[in-house]
Structure formats: structure tokens, C-alpha cells
Design goal:
The protein is mainly α. The protein has nine helices and no strands. It is globular.
């Protein structure tokens, strides 16, 4: 994209993401009756979306290096995405590359849970930098809402779980996902509330907050169903994880285009505007 109005830039990114999600949804419906084909489509699509997000994270790290606040926080974000991408690859191997039953918890779950640490660092350190601009009542509303929604999911999952006695590690993992998602949601939404008035500053945070909210919702419902009905077939969640990774990739793409200086890009834009 060349230099355009922020609204047009944001609209183009959102349309691209929505189009990709729509194409995936149509393909999913087309192969729905074939369980193995559906599994392959879901796993490979999610891997591709996670790889795209990781690519932009590494590109930002390469261009920004490790200096300053953004250098360190985006390095942490890249580490988190590396762990989540590795988890997706491991899970794909379990599901379509191995003849054995998919274990739970697994190495993939360990990688996913570890990924929350660098993601949390990125969000909380960035939020601390802007915290003086935050409104106390907004923080209270976000904390109360997040605690109410996700706080209720944990006891419901535990009390309803058929794994409570038989499989404590599995129950722990099912509870850990929504709890950690809730921890990420608060700084993500607060950052959006702080930067929302900026025409440029709000764009990456709108997409990032949306990605975390979607993944958090998917984790919470998926964890609840897995804990309470471990033998049930769970369908449809792949589109949420795909959308989450695509939104994350979009957020990183926007940050790279809008906030990371690139000499060759700057020269090209100057030449286009001075023909």
C-alpha cells in the first residue's frame, strides 16, 4: 500500500482479513462432511495465518532491532508468536501426521501456555508506558467486566467438569487458557482506550484487541466443552482461531507500515509524491 488516508488503510486491511475468513468459511462448508479433509483444511489454514503473523513480527524485530521500548516489547511479541506457531505445528502433527490418539495435555499445550508470558510482557510493559493517559473509571469497567465473564468460567468449568477426579492436569490446562486470556484482555483493551483517538495509533490496537478477544472467547468455550464433555465432537472453532491470527497479522502489518521507518519505502513514497 502506498501512503493513504488512515481510514482507507484500515478499511483495506479489514476487508482483506474478512475476505480470507470468508473464503475459509466457504471451503470449510464445502468439505464439512469429510472429517479428515476438514481437519487438514483447518490445521493448514491456521498454520498459514500464524506463520503470516510471525513473519510480520520478525520483520518488525529486524527493522526496529532491540533498542527502546518498542524494540524490546515487539521482540517479546515475536517470541510469543514463535511459541504459538510451534504449538500449531506440533498440534497439526498430532492430528494429521500421527496415527496415535491426540494427547491432552500435550507438548503443544505447553508451548501455547508458555507463549502467554512474552505476550503478557509486550502488553503490560506497553500499557505501563501509556498508563498516565488511562482513565481510572475505564480501567475499573474493563477489570470488572473481564473478571465477571472469565471469573465465572473457571468455577463453572471446575464444578461441571467430568475430569475433576480423573485428570487433574487436563482440568488445569482447560482452566489456564481462559484465565491467561483474561490477563491479556485487560491491557489490550486499555491500550485501545488510550490510543483510540489517534487516527494512526488506534489502528494496530483495534486489530490486536479484536484478535485477543476472539481467541479468548474461543479458548473459554472450547475449554468448557472439553472439560465437561471430553468425548463430544467440537466443530467450528477453527474459524475463530484463524480470524484471531489474521487480525494479529493485520495489527503487526499496520504497525510495520505506519510506525517502523523504512528508508527505501520513504524514498519510494517521496518519488511518487514528487513526480
Amino acid at each position: 500500500m502506498s501512503a493513504t488516508h488512515p481510514t482507507s488503510f484500515f478499511r483495506n486491511v479489514v476487508i482483506t482479513i474478512a475476505t480470507l475468513v470468508g473464503i475459509y468459511g466457504l471451503a470449510y462448508i464445502a468439505v464439512f462432511e469429510d472429517q479428515y479433509a476438514t481437519l487438514i483444511l483447518s490445521d493448514l489454514s491456521i498454520n498459514a495465518a500464524a506463520a503470516a503473523a510471525l513473519f510480520f513480527a520478525l520483520l518488525i524485530l529486524y527493522r526496529q532491532k532491540l533498542g527502546g521500548l518498542h524494540g524490546k516489547t515487539y521482540a517479546a511479541f515475536a517470541i510469543g508468536l514463535s511459541l504459538w506457531f510451534a504449538a500449531e505445528v506440533v498440534q497439526t502433527y498430532y492430528e494429521i501426521g500421527s496415527e496415535e490418539e491426540v494427547p491432552f495435555p500435550s507438548i503443544a499445550d505447553a508451548l501455547w501456555l508458555l507463549g502467554y508470558v512474552p505476550f503478557g510482557y509486550h502488553l503490560f510493559v506497553t500499557y505501563r508506558f501509556f498508563v498516565k493517559s488511562a482513565r481510572p473509571h475505564t480501567l475499573f469497567v474493563v477489570l470488572a467486566t473481564t473478571a465477571g465473564i472469565f471469573g465465572s468460567m473457571v468455577p463453572i468449568t471446575i464444578l461441571s467438569s467430568s475430569l475433576l477426579v480423573d485428570d487433574i492436569p487436563a482440568l488445569f490446562v482447560n482452566v489456564a487458557y481462559p484465565a491467561l486470556d483474561a490477563a491479556l484482555i485487560v491491557p489490550a483493551i486499555m491500550m485501545f482506550s488510550i490510543l483510540r483517538k489517534g487516527k494512526l495509533g488506534s489502528i494496530p490496537w483495534v486489530l490486536l484487541a479484536a484478535s485477543i478477544l476472539i481467541i479468548a472467547a474461543a479458548d473459554s468455550v472450547f475449554g468448557y466443552i472439553s472439560a465437561t464433555s471430553p468425548d463430544s465432537e467440537i466443530w467450528g472453532f477453527s474459524i475463530l482461531y484463524l480470524a484471531g491470527y489474521l487480525l494479529m497479522a493485520g495489527a503487526l502489518y499496520c504497525h510495520d507500515r505506519l510506525f517502523v521507518f523504512n528508508r527505501s519505502r520513504a524514498v519510494r513514497v517521496w518519488q511518487e509524491q514528487n513526480k
